[in-house]
UniProtKB/TrEMBL annotation:
This is Zinc-binding dehydrogenase. SUPFAM superfamilies: GroES-like, NAD(P)-binding Rossmann-fold domains. SMART domains: PKS_ER. One of its GO terms (molecular function) is zinc ion binding. Coiled coil: none annotated. Signal peptide: none annotated. Residues 12-346 form the Enoyl reductase (ER) domain. It comes from Breznakiella homolactica. Belongs to the zinc-containing alcohol dehydrogenase family. It holds the Pfam family ADH_zinc_N. CDD domains: THR_DH_like. Its cofactor is Zn(2+). It comes from the Bacteria. InterPro entries: ADH-like_C, ADH-like_N, ADH_Zn_CS, ER, GroES-like_sf, NAD(P)-bd_dom_sf, Zn_alcohol_dh.
Length: 353
């Protein structure tokens, strides 16, 4: 396919800039995907949008932004084995070397090879009309899910599902989620469908609280404060929650996730960046608590997740509160930075509702 397309770049000064780019041609084992929906991740705001502060795997190399894309294959390169023209696909947003230990487990996120390149960070991403993808980085999008559902699986929901699988959530559990941004809301949505009987959120932004309540994702919402651990225990018979997730990346939020967990509880840190201060003996050792760090997920678990989303009949796109065209991508990033919203999507064709 010849011609030019528009792509969005993040110069690091709280703006998004559209540029004309050549439509790429797929090489061996690659496909050209027509972008249908590309959602904005908080890590884009934290590491790229305001200022280029990311290092290593989070180092932005002035490529087309966006690492949560979903679309349809429109052109095949030689050597393609599974996905053909017309295939609906989610893009796992890290293209690993494929031969290291982590890649062979499906965790390309943890690939340490110099060949590792994340879409929207070190290679062109999804904030464009087309995206060049390695076939090995694709996950099939079932017909029952929309492209905007799939875009959220590409990072946010996949990340949450990994953390949930690590700690385990069932009908036996009361769950605390600290920070009800898009990742926190996704955590509530998946914990609800997995049977958690009491869901408690901590959040200070009214728009996010309103969305959580509107979608019936939460039973109790607390305003952030030093008394949150005691408030959570009061809601759980003085015990605390069996499972807690920090999606806030804030020091007090993480400490609350630890202290609000009951004896033998499990805590997952999902939010990126920041610090945490706690007292090891009273906060975790004496109560036999376990803290898990969780970073994105594997491509095989992402495939499992899309199958389960269909089975559970839930749609990640329900968390999207605002959709923008590519021409208005600057407005999309401005809104996402403010945080007075749910998920923000840049959409194309039938997804631009």
């Amino acid at each position: 396919m010849e011609g030019t397309m528009k792509g969005a770049y993040l110069p690091g000064n709280s703006t998004a800039v559209l540029k004309d780019c050549p439509i790429p041609t797929p090489g061996w084992g690659q496909v050209l995907v027509k972008t249908k929906s590309s959602t904005i991740c908080g890590s884009d705001i934290r590491c790229i949008y305001r200022e280029h502060v990311g290092k290593g795997p989070e180092g932005y190399q002035n490529v087309i932004a966006g690492h949560e894309p979903c679309g349809q294959v429109v052109e095949e390169g030689p050597g393609v084995r599974r996905f053909k023209k017309g295939s609906r696909v989610i893009v796992y947003h890290i293209s690993g070397c494929g031969v290291c230990h982590d890649c062979r487990m499906g965790y390309m996120i943890s690939c340490s090879s110099p060949l590792r390149a994340a879409y929207g960070w070190q290679r062109d991403g999804g904030m464009a009309e087309y995206i060049l993808c390695d076939e090995k980085d694709l996950v099939e999008l079932p017909d029952e899910l929309t492209y905007t559902d799939g875009a959220q699986v590409a990072c946010g929901f996949g990340t949450v599902y990994e953390a949930i699988e690590k700690v385990g959530v069932s009908g036996n559990d009361a769950v605390l989620v600290v920070g009800l941004g898009p990742v926190g809301l996704a955590t509530l949505m998946l914990c609800r469908v997995l049977g958690a009987q009491k869901l408690i959120g901590i959040e200070g932004i009214p728009e996010r609280i309103e969305l959580a309540k509107k979608l019936n994702l939460v039973d109790h919402v607390l305003s952030p404060s030093e008394s949150n651990p005691d408030e959570v225990k009061a809601l759980t018979g003085g015990k605390g929650v069996e499972r807690s997730f920090d999606c806030s990346a804030s020091d007090p939020g993480r400490a609350t996730a630890i202290r609000a967990a009951r004896q033998w509880g499990k805590i997952a840190f999902v939010g990126e960046g920041g610090t945490v201060h706690f007292n090891p003996s009273p906060d975790i050792i004496h109560d036999q608590k376990i803290i898990y760090g969780s970073w994105v997920t594997s491509i095989w678990r992402m495939e499992d997740l899309v199958e389960r989303l269909v089975r559970w009949n839930i749609h990640p796109e329900d968390l999207v509160t605002h959709r923008f065209s590519l021409d208005n991508v600057a407005d999309a990033y401005t809104l996402m930075e403010k945080g007075t919203c749910g998920k923000v999507a840049v959409c194309f064709d039938e997804e631009l509702k």
